[in-house]
Amino acid sequence: MRLVTVKAPAGQGKDVVAIALEVGVSHVSVHQAKEHISDGREVTQDVVEVATATPKAKRFIENLMESSFYEPATYTFTVRHPESLFGSQPPETETHPITRPTTDVYEELWQFTKVTVSLVGRVFLSSVLLSYGMVKDMLPLIIAGLLFLPYHHHMLATGLGACISEWRLLRQGLLALLLTTALILLAGVCVAVFTKPPIGWEEFGSPVSGFFLSTAIGIAAGLGAVDDAGRRELIGLAATAHISVYPAWFGLKLVFGFDEGDKWIEHLLTFAINVTSLTLAAGITFALMRMKGGGIRRFVRQMGHAE
């Protein structure tokens, strides 16, 4: 369910209404409002409000952004997710949870991949818990560390960026992925400095099992990202548990030293396969779920020129 509010130049509200009705929205509200701009100007705008099921909201937003009259500099729209919606359709229609608007998934992943002090702190401290839990073979501590690692979002952002050809998001996803991997490795090094070998937990899979598991997790994560009812936090735990243990192990081993029986080449290969498989599977899932980037690319391109 979505509540969409579109602010359009005065006189263009009727064009927005036409797009909403074309995608099956049964009721659309229009009124005018005054917008005060920082340079002192006062502008009259048509405000169009739509309350509808998630799939219709997706089509409405994407058709609006790709329409001939839409101009990012003069149009603004916001999308909200209400707890309930009792409108012109029965609950089994209004509550259909897929597919979320591409704009929702896109901006959510931008938030998760922004490099901030909070991201660095959360990743590093979570990785400390993870690494210490691995040394002491304490599963509850390992799980506690994994709960706060936003690792899979970075792979999802990379996959979505490739799917919709939005290269800024793809680059941001890769940057966040590399930074997070480095922080997990660094946390492992720090934990190893203050502890003693051996590493108690070393339950790693093979490259083949890693490929199949990562592909399954990538599909599930992609589906969860586009589904209002998707349990994204639980899928995230599965993804981070499957992948983040590798850089933590390497960080620990850089201080403890590599033993003769350590399969570090296999672990490195498995890590690379896991990350690549999950990212590709998520990207393909996004494509199959019809994530569309034409309007987003248009917005990014025009607003980038405006800057």
Name some characteristics of this structure.
alpha+beta; Glycerol uptake facilitator protein; 13 helices; 61% helix; 11% strand
Structural overview:
InterPro entries: DUF389. Keywords: Membrane, Transmembrane, Transmembrane helix. The chain crosses the membrane at residues 141-162, 174-195, 207-227, 234-256, 268-289. This is DUF389 domain-containing protein. The chain has 307 residues and is of the alpha+beta class. It folds into two domains: 2-96, Alpha-Beta Plaits (2-Layer Sandwich); 103-288, Glycerol uptake facilitator protein. The protein is built from 13 helices and four strands. The chain has helices at 13-22, 54-65, 91-94, 102-113, 117-136, 139-147, 151-163, 167-193, 207-225, 232-243, 245-256, 264-288, 294-306, and strands spanning 2-9, 28-36, 42-52, 76-80. A four-stranded antiparallel sheet has the order 2-3-1-4. A hairpin with a 5-residue loop joins β2 and β3. α4 (102-113) crosses α7 (151-163). The longest helix has 27 residues, at 167-193. The model has no long low-confidence stretch (mean pLDDT 93).
Share in β-strands: 5-15%
> What coarse outline follows from CA principal-axis ratios?
elongated
Number of strands: 4
Radius of gyration of CA atoms, rounded to a whole number: 23 Å
Mean pLDDT equals 93
Query: What name does the CATH topology of the largest domain carry?
Result: Glycerol uptake facilitator protein
CATH architecture of the largest domain: Up-down Bundle
Separation of the first and last Cα atoms: 34 Å
What is the top-level CATH class of the largest domain?
Answer: Mainly Alpha
Could you say how many structural domains there are in total? 2
With strands numbered from the N-terminus, the spatial order across the biggest sheet is 2-3-1-4
Q: Tell me the number of helical segments per DSSP (H or I, 4 or more residues long).
A: 13
Class by helix and strand content?
alpha+beta
Order of helices and strands: EHEEHEHHHHHHHHHHH
Low-pLDDT residue intervals, each spanning 5 or more residues: none
Proportion of helical residues: 55-70%
- Major beta-sheet overview: 4 strands, antiparallel
